[in-house]
Amino acid sequence: MKTYFSLILCGVCLLSGCGSGSSVAPLVITTASLPNGTSELNYSQTIQASGGVAPFTWTVSSGTLPHNLALNSSATNAVTISGTPDTAAQGVAFTISVADSANHSAAQAYTVSILLEPDTLTLSPANLSFAPQLVETLSGAQAETVTNTGTSAVIISRIAVTGTNATDFSQSSSCGSSLAAGANCTISVTLTASQLGPRTASITITDNTVGSPHSVSLSGVGLTSGPDATWSATSLNFANQSVGTTSPAQSLTLSNYGTTTLSIAGTAVTADFGETDTCSGSNLASAASCTISVTFAPSASGSLNGTVSVTDNAPGSPQTVALTGTGVTSTCIPIGGSCFGPSHPHCCAAPFPHHSFCSNPTGFGTCVED
């Protein structure tokens, strides 16, 4: 009988695997999440599994890894995602799966962002301003210092001159493609003004930090020898204006882009136009300017032409700007009617020309009581 019970016990043990070490734990991926990466910095993270029967097969079963990262080959219960991500991205979702030799499998979803480096670049000074200089002459160089205040290298992909007058400025640098933590480099900038007047541009630095692109404004002024008188516009045009009324003023700027003082004897305008100014009798230093405000008061309907002129000691004096405008006859518009402000500042010419007006002095509106 004792032998019989022993045989039964052994059979139970064989069926249950007791004492044999052959029991297999379920296959599970134990790495619940992965950290974010940083663009242009090496990324290497291990995903761990437990249970199952070796060898193992790892795959990206859905989604895609961030750009330039790869799932390495592994037959063990651990696998590595590694590489150097080169594209910033938010919330890249993918699933990693593992299968064992006993046809068991497990999967784990992950979401990883590839971030730019913290903004660790500082630029000094904040802008570069060049002294006024003769057109087509090369200025002295000015230096811009770029410093990496962070604890890891900053990858610099591009340094360029950009903006309105970019071709007037030139740059060279000692920065290279990477700036080590705590290091600095220098950008040297020069100006060769191609035309008279203000010249503006920017130095633009493209890198892998949050603040990219970084920029530094550049400015200078091109001059000619002797005095100069340069207008901000070559003509002014006034919209339809009611006969006997005065338009809002339009402004002109007169600048001296010469190396010597511009002496202004006086200003003048022709009939139907008026002006006030800060120019008459003044002496404008090099790179200085003054303002002339012009109005239009037509004495008759129709197209009217005129000029504003400045007499000074610059070549080509007097300097003139062409003026044009159109006078219109006011039409009596009843209260509540549609009106056009420039033509009907006072809606009704009669009997109450000063007791009603257009609600929109610069465009279409409604005739309202004063």
What can you see in these coordinates?
The model is unreliable at 1-21 and 349-354 (pLDDT under 50). This protein has one helix at residues 2-16; strands at residues 28-29, 37-38, 43-50, 57-63, 69-71, 78-83, 89-99, 105-115, 121-124, 127-129, 133-134, 142-148, 154-162, 169-173, 178-179, 184-191, 197-207, 214-223, 230-231, 235-242, 250-255, 262-269, 273-277, 283-284, 289-296, 302-312, 319-328, 338-340, 356-358, 364-369. Strands 10, 11, 13, 15, 17 and 18 form a 6-stranded mixed beta sheet that branches. β26 and β27 form a beta hairpin. The longest helix has 15 residues, at 2-16. It has 4 domains: 22-115, Immunoglobulin-like (Sandwich), CATH 2.60.40; 121-223, Immunoglobulins (Immunoglobulin-like, Sandwich), CATH 2.60.40; 230-328, Immunoglobulins (Immunoglobulin-like); 338-369, no CATH class. It has 370 residues and is mostly beta strands.
